[in-house]
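Hi R.,

As promised on Friday, here is the backbone we talked about, encoded as structure tokens. Could you run it through your design pipeline when you get a chance and send me back a sequence?
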């Protein structure tokens, strides 16, 4: 699927900065692994505004968003909002990988293997 031109609301820039400064431990640990093109040479951005949303991590060349979901995503309302948000962004050509906060903290090897597998499968 060809990706549409992605715009974002400039008002999200400050919110993204606040989110970066208040990251969860899982997000911090994953960012240490994603930054500086450490995963198969791909560039990832942190707390990236896309359209009217902000994703935890985004690799522009892959059109890949990665989300680390903590306990704030557990309620039924949050699950519905996450699903709607993801469906909207997928309609713009963005792919998603989701990991739990616990996996990002305790199973980093599995998280990175999943990301690398996804990249290899989608860049053949």
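Update: got your reply. Pasting your designed sequence below so it's all in one thread:
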């Amino acid at each position: 699927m060809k990706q549409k031109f992605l715009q974002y609301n400039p008002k999200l820039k400050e919110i993204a900065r606040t989110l970066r400064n208040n990251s969860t431990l899982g997000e911090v640990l994953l960012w240490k692994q994603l930054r500086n093109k450490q995963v198969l040479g791909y560039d990832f951005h942190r707390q990236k505004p896309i359209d009217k949303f902000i994703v935890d991590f985004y690799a522009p060349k892959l059109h890949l968003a990665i989300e680390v979901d903590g306990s704030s995503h557990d309620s039924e309302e949050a699950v519905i909002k996450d699903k709607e948000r993801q469906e909207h962004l997928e309609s713009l050509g963005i792919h998603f990988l989701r990991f739990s906060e616990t996996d990002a903290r305790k199973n980093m090897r599995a998280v990175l293997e999943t990301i690398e597998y996804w990249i290899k499968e989608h860049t053949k």
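One thing I noticed while checking it: The two ends are 15 Å apart (CA to CA).

Thanks again,
M.
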